[in-house]
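Most newcomers find our protein records easier to grasp once they have seen one. A learned vocabulary of local backbone shapes supplies the integers on the structure line. Here is such a record, shown just as it appears in the course material:
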Amino acid sequence: MDLYIIFMSLLRMIVPGVPQNNGTTVPSSPIPGLPICIYAQKVCPNPDVTFYLYTTEHPEPRLLDLNYPDNITSSLFMMDSPFKLLLHGYGENYTLTANSVLRSVYLSSGNYNVIVASYGALVPDGCYIHGTINLPVIANCTAQLIDFLVKKMKVPLQNIHVIGFSLGAQVAGQAGNFMTVGKLKRITDLTCSHFRAPMYFAESITTQTGFWGYQCSQKMHAIAFPFLCDYDYNAIMGEYANSSARGIYRVDTNGKSPYAIGKHRISPLNELH
């Protein structure tokens, strides 16, 4: 599947393009019925990068249009509540998978401002290479929104938590290159078990059991040799992760929902005897 995605993306890159009025070039689709790949206009705000706000008090989406910043007022936000900025992955848009799952759980479990980004036209299925080339533009526009929230809306930077799924995690990482208000205090990368990662994280918001990880000195130990990890050094993972925790952690889960299994009480080293 990955080789197919790369092949189709390369094929699209060599197909003659169709000039557009805005100065960009849209490649023709090599196979009828497949999405057309485009290169993003290198401007922010950008017509292909939009943001929608959901709050616990107002769960219907509201467009945050930075072309009209005066229309974005504090009345739209729950200013004393945390801000969650969700960035979707390749082949998705703001209504699918990670965004919809996490948005729903946040809004039903407490007071949150949930902002979801939408840039599906820049990362459609079959256009992975184009999508990666478009990442800096998406990241720049994301940074512009964060700067606006901090400078104009007076949102404390530490109240903004950016959560990226798959390709969205790369957007989150690159956004810091364009921000002018400082560094993001928290970024969550949802690519551990990929499509199940959003489910794990969503459950971590409400579970009483908890996703507990135990520290491993090397990634290989966490993946293949868990008996070499330290079960006595536990740390909570997910939504309520301890910001002071450092290092590599292994988290075991159930095979189906509910996934959380809580703390380990017996070290794998002891289980060998």
Summary: The longest strand covers residues 230-236.
